[in-house]
């Protein structure tokens, strides 16, 4: 969307992405800063990931477990998004 493009360009220039609070007002529901009413959903984490305690941790070890964690996180998101997200086919998890 144009808003996302604007946020990304501004983030590259100043280092922070602007957050535009969109909600409802005190006396009307069309615009404002108060969050809109929506149910709170609690998502429990998936299966545990085994990470051994290492005496000498190398950058390769960190990268290996970071990759494993990222794969597990994306798989869990893809599995759960159909329960909790509107239009799940259009949503994907991006980890930079």
TrEMBL record:
Please list the GO biological process terms of this entry: triglyceride biosynthetic process
Keyword annotations for this protein, in alphabetical order, are:
Acyltransferase, Endoplasmic reticulum, Lipid biosynthesis, Lipid metabolism, Membrane, Transferase, Transmembrane, Transmembrane helix
Q: What GO CC annotations are associated with the protein?
A: endoplasmic reticulum membrane
Which segments of the protein form a coiled coil according to its record? none
Lineage runs: Eukaryota, Metazoa, Ecdysozoa, Arthropoda, Hexapoda
Q: Which GO terms describe its molecular function?
A: diacylglycerol O-acyltransferase activity
What family does this chain come from, according to its entry?
Belongs to the diacylglycerol acyltransferase family.
Its protein name is 2-acylglycerol O-acyltransferase 1-like
Pfam families from the UniProt entry: DAGAT
Membrane topology term reads: Multi-pass membrane protein
| Location of the protein in the cell | Endoplasmic reticulum membrane
Q: Does the record's keyword annotation contain Acyltransferase?
A: yes
